[in-house]
Design goal:
It is a single chain. By secondary structure, the protein is an alpha/beta fold. The chain has two domains: 111 residues, Tetrapyrrole methylase, N-terminal domain (Cobalt-precorrin-4 Transmethylase, domain 1, 3-Layer(aba) Sandwich), CATH 3.40.1010; 143 residues, Methyltransferase, Cobalt-precorrin-4 Transmethylase, Domain 2 (2-Layer Sandwich), CATH 3.30.950.10.
Length: 267
């Protein structure tokens, strides 16, 4: 249904990493109140299925090196829809304020005088921590956690705080880092982390087809990192990986037989 006034509004909604049970009640309410849903590629089918029948859906999803709807066009689309009196749900994977460009879209909308509301989402690091049982902090193993992006806009070189990141008491979570993981591993070792520092690679975190792979920085640094894998990838780097539960370890051993994941280590 259209908003009663001539002025629409935009809901910036975090869809979480994929499991629909991780949606907040606020996010679900916003989805169900929307006239149109503008969604990203990483929003799971299970969550898209919660959109009421008859509500318009617009897919603006991006893939690495393939952005059929550039960000400036997404900004314009949201603005135009709201200015036509539509109630717009902007549905993003994870949390819109954690590597989600939610603040960029909100700035454009607010400059146009369009009301913006937020519904936070479970970011991938938290979702994967819960699904694998690997904590992000743990007494005696990790006193801090840092989230970093492994990919820069326009493929610019990564210019991260390598000295600050390469700390054995820190859990490092790398988003969007698959293509650059070989470089990231090398930099972390060059700045002080040991080659046997543990790494947990999680594909499709929290979803029914979640896959896990346990390795170490040395293996990632010396093997090919630009390998196609079937879904979004998250890297957890740190001593907390040693706490992967027994069930997870058994699953990991089985996953090592999957060709598309084996190539991450042996490509």
């Amino acid at each position: 249904m259209l908003n009663g006034s001539n002025q629409g509004e935009v809901f910036l909604i975090g869809a979480g990493p994929g499991d629909p049970e991780l949606l907040t009640l606020k996010a679900l309410r916003m989805i169900q109140e929307a006239d149109v849903v503008v969604h990203d590629r990483l929003v799971s089918k299970a969550i898209l299925d919660l959109i009421p029948d008859g509500v318009e859906r617009i897919d603006v999803g991006k893939k690495p090196n393939h952005h059929p709807v550039p960000q400036h066009k997404i900004n314009t689309l949201l603005k135009d829809l709201a200015e036509r009196g539509r109630r717009v749900a902007r549905l993003k994977g994870g949390d819109p304020m954690v590597f989600g460009r939610g603040s960029e879209e909100a700035a454009v909308l607010r400059d146009a005088g369009i009301p913006v509301s937020f519904a936070p989402g479970i970011t991938a690091a938290q979702g994967v921590s819960a699904s694998t049982g690997v904590p992000l902090t743990h007494r005696g193993l990790a006193t801090s956690v840092r989230f970093v992006t492994g990919h820069c806009r326009a493929d610019m070189p990564l210019d991260l705080d390598w000295d600050g990141l390469a700390h054995v008491d820190t859990t490092l979570v790398v988003y969007m880092g698959h293509a650059n993981m070989q470089h990231i591993a090398g930099e972390l070792m060059q700045h002080g982390l040991p080659s046997d520092h543990p790494v947990l690679v999680v594909v499709n975190g929290t979803r029914p087809n979640e896959s896990r792979l346990v390795t170490h920085l040395g293996a990632l640094q010396t093997k090919r990192a630009v390998i196609a894998v079937p879904g979004p990838v998250l890297f957890i780097i740190g001593r907390v990986v040693s706490l992967l539960d027994g069930e997870g370890r058994a699953e990991t051993n089985a996953i090592l037989q999957a060709p598309e994941l084996r190539q991450v280590l042996h490509g």
